[in-house]
Amino acid sequence: MPDLSTVTNGRILYGGDYNPEQWPEETWLEDVRLMKAAGVNSVTLGVFSWAELEPSPGAREFGWLDRLMDLMYENGIGVVLATPTSSPPPWMGHLHPDTLPVDQDGRTEWWGGRQHFSHSSATYRRYAAAITEDLAARYGSHPALTMWHINNEYCTFDWSDEAAARFRDWLQNKYGTLAELNEAWGTAFWSQGYGDWAEIHTPRHAHYLKNPTQVLDFRRFTSDMLLECYAAERDIVRRATPHLPVTTNFMPLWIGQDAWRWAEEEDVVSVDLYPDPRDPLGAQQGALVQDMTRSQARGPWMLMEQAAGPVNWRGVNHPKPRGLNRLWSLQAVARGADAVCYFQWRQSRQGAEKFHSGMVSHAGEEGRTYQEVKQLGAELACISGEVTGSHTANDIAVLHDWHAWWASAQDGRLSSEVDHPDLVKAWHRALWQAHLTTDFAHPEHDLSAYRLVVVPQLYALTDAAIENLIAYVQNGGTLVSGFLTGVADEDDRVRPGGMDVRLRELFGIRTLHEWWPLDAGEGVECDGFRGTLWSEEIEKDEESVTEAAFKGGELDGLPAVLRKGRAWYVSTLPEPEALRGLLGRIAADAGARPVLDGLPDQIEAVRRGDLLFVLNHSREPVSVEVPGTHQDLLTGTAFTDEVTLLRYGVVVLRS
Fold first, then answer.
1. Global confidence as pTM
2. Is 365 a catalytic residue?
């Protein structure tokens, strides 16, 4: 199958969403001039153009897109052509109300925004297939076309009657019989037993708590229905252009898609990434998303969207300080991106996103934003030939699974303070701040290549995942797990003993007597650190070692950190510095080390292929020891043993 290398041809793709239908055609020539000056070599066309392309049912207005495709080709700019199906025209909802999604309170989501489509609507799917067929037929052989981009940010939940009918089909396919469904859903509780498939609906608003497994299956169903929509359009364009790759853009850590499964259906894995420039941990959020996306891609990936300046959807939308856009873009390249793109090229003058930045801001060519974009384009060209296609090898894997997240994100749980994404971020942050580079993996993946496997939390685990973790440790790997792991099976059925017996044996837990969640802001003292968020009343077995105990209170003397051989269990959330120190020590014992020793805080060092990226995430100059003689590919400057990085500075070193 084609992949990103099919498009890059030794270059880093640079550009972004281009929405020229918002502008008079005389602006297009100016856009092309500025693109070429900035080193833009790729634009995405047509993402939100359905009403322009099909102004009435069955009509086709392709003339403007013909001229744009020709213009891009004539100027050496490749086109990632999008199917416009994320934002149906108003006529569709007006004529076909069945295409509109419904929320869990029964309210219709009307047109006037975007993503207003029912993933289960046969009518919507028919129109989406038709416009995709015609785009593929018209532009499949156009020389400007380099890649297909299907829809945009699939993020629609739907509780409509259309969705309910498909949900019943999905459930019948999964369970076969109502008896199996009733068993899986535990419907003996609260008199919920189903005697007819027609009785089952989407989990709409209820008087009190909903059936957790019904909600879990609804999340699985939603991911599958959206994937069906993607795959239907993907297959259409693949038939027309089997030599070109196909992608759609993920939103990072979005709850509605099982991105592990989705990534298997894409030729190119791409993501949208918008850390808050005022967030002191924004760089770590970027690193997490980049690590996860690279791991899903199993190699180079595409940064489909980022902001050149402020966004428009936070309460207060801050611009990026001078140099931060360059720093975060090169961080993405360091962590595997072979494409650095933006939403959008030219900042809109009207519409809901007119205050969302563009590569060309309202300040125009002389504005700081465009000048920085232009500088970055030149620098990416300097390193393209040496970085594209190369991989990053890491000794540590962080485990994450959407199904475990979905099962844990239920009402009626022990603590609403415990949030799966927050735990993933906290554990990844500890590793990042310890200067340890990581991959992400699914708990059923082959983990044998890693010295250390980290489980922030996996509330629900399949038998296959549990056996995989046990085998990993038995074969010499080091495993460290956070609390509330292995509590339930894939149907959200609590395992006997409150934690799977095989995992209790692995970690040296004889009995898990009680969970002791902590209130917001509450802590618990432990040997050498303070725990937050959670604690557990654990009785250990004879073979395990208490590495740190709780001090005082009901759990005095009981294990806070427990180890049995190479398996570690952490029954609280240590404060950030303590978690960083704990994971750093465990990693060192496992033989996993930073790329460079002795790195100052706020300095990130990542090796990609034969290149070493060193990034300064602080506003102050910092000197970094880098033994040996190196050349910075961005400036041509040579360094011996030490590199000085200015504010938000980056060097890309060849040994």
1. 0.97
2. no
